[in-house]
């Protein structure tokens, strides 16, 4: 039966991490910053089925926290910087990390949904 073959979740998630179509790995997954394209320009795979909700945001928050929180310990173990500069630099770093990580995590979630045929994929 056509279309029932098993899909490789690992490669689909890696393609999503690179913001590429989980099916072919060539077409762009997102248009703009976080909007999912309706379909892949290369293979025609319908992408509008993606329904990731808040999952990528929560996962991104955990990743950023796991990076930022230990940095406080490292910074204060090395020296005694002004707390205001530490707070400001960590806020900037956390924001930049979150903005970089969020679309990629969304791509991973969409890749997993595609591989597991969830939500109409
Ligand atoms: Zn494609």
Q: Which structural class do you get from the secondary structure elements?
A: mainly alpha
Please estimate the helix content. 40-55%
DSSP strand count: 2
* Biggest beta sheet attributes: 2 strands, antiparallel
Strand ordering within the main sheet:
1-2
Structural shape: elongated
- Spans of at least 5 consecutive residues whose pLDDT stays below 50 are none
Protein name: DUF983 domain-containing protein
Keywords: Membrane, Transmembrane, Transmembrane helix
Pfam families: DUF983
Transmembrane segments: 57-78, 84-102
Report on this structure.
The chain is mainly α and about 120 residues long. The protein has one domain (about 10-120). Helices cover about 55% and strands about 5% of the residues. It contains 3 helices and 2 strands. A two-stranded antiparallel sheet has the order 1-2. The two termini are about 15 Å apart. Zinc ion binds next to loops. Zinc ion binds near residues 23, 26, 42 and 43. Pfam families: DUF983. Keywords: Membrane, Transmembrane, Transmembrane helix. It comes from Salibaculum griseiflavum.
What's the short version?
This protein is mainly alpha-helical and 121 residues long. It contains three helices and two strands. The chain has a two-stranded antiparallel sheet.
